[in-house]
Amino acid sequence: MVPEFPRIDEEVEVTELEEYSGGSAANYTVGVARLGIRVGFIGKIGNDAYGQKLKTDFLREKVDISQLKIANTHSGTCLIPIDLNGNRQIFSFRGANAILEPEDIDDTYIKQAELLYITSPPIEVATFAAELAQENKVLLSYDPGGKVIRKGLQFIEPVLYNTNIFLPSKSELALLFPQSKEPKAAALHLIETYDIQIVAAKLGAQGSLIVTKDDAIHVKGFKVPVVDTTGAGDSFAAAFTVGIYKQWDLLRCAQFANAAGAIKVMRMGARTALPTLKEIKTFLAKNKNNKQYNK
User: Fold this and answer.
1) 3-class DSSP state for residue 13?
2) Domain limits of the chain?
3) CATH level 2 (architecture), domain 24-45+99-294
4) CA 222, CA 112: separation in Å to the nearest integer?
5) Cα(17)–Cα(133) distance, rounded to whole angstroms?
6) 10 Å Cβ neighbour count for 287?
7) What is the pLDDT at residue 72?
8) Alpha-carbon distance 134 to 140, whole Å?
9) pLDDT at residue 65 above 70?
10) For the purposes of burial, counting CB atoms within 10 Å of the CB of 8, is it exposed (0-12), middle (13-18) or buried (19 or more)?
């Protein structure tokens, strides 16, 4: 925690320092597990203390780690300063995640899945897994994050062509389509070009925009005090795809996901603050009047 972000060549005092397990894909996986769905993690960690902690945390959350590889290097690490308003900056070191290879992936593990969620592994791994999912009629959701999206639309196209559900933020859509003033227009372009079935755009405090080729709904966000936004997108994605897995309608999926994101931002930590199914149900029950949406 910092009182403010420093400018170039400035120094600020860190007022609080805490250590959490994290990583977008790992956060998503734990988020799904806390919602009562059987889930496994495919990835690579280092043979260091951070890697051991990640492994221990997965086991505690009842995540299947049979596809977790260990490399003789450092685990991926992020430094995330957060100011007094809950704003953040992220400095990431990919570590072992950067050397995950297609050869590390067990084809059978993906073939027998019902849904595969991909974040930001090396693009050749993402492409391999996405193609394998489509070949075996496994529903694919893709949420590469800003760091990957900044490399451009062409860079992620091999995955997009195999994607069923795309989960960008509003700012990430703007990066992909700088000439498009509206997230809906950008989402429709993705749907028409890559035959994506659902674009679920995360709008932060404004909620979410769910777009298909036939419809678009803006589901308003919940007004809550913001402590830490880190992991909010992962919480949203976990809840939204769980709704899809349960065959809910898109409005219900979005309301459920918005609630998951709202609960997360009210608490510190990307992983520890992820909500349980009971917490989301309780939150929604207390916010019954926040079900308005716009077509």
Assistant:
1) coil
2) 24-45+99-294
3) 3-Layer(aba) Sandwich (3.40)
4) 36
5) 40
6) 16
7) 93
8) 7
9) yes
10) exposed
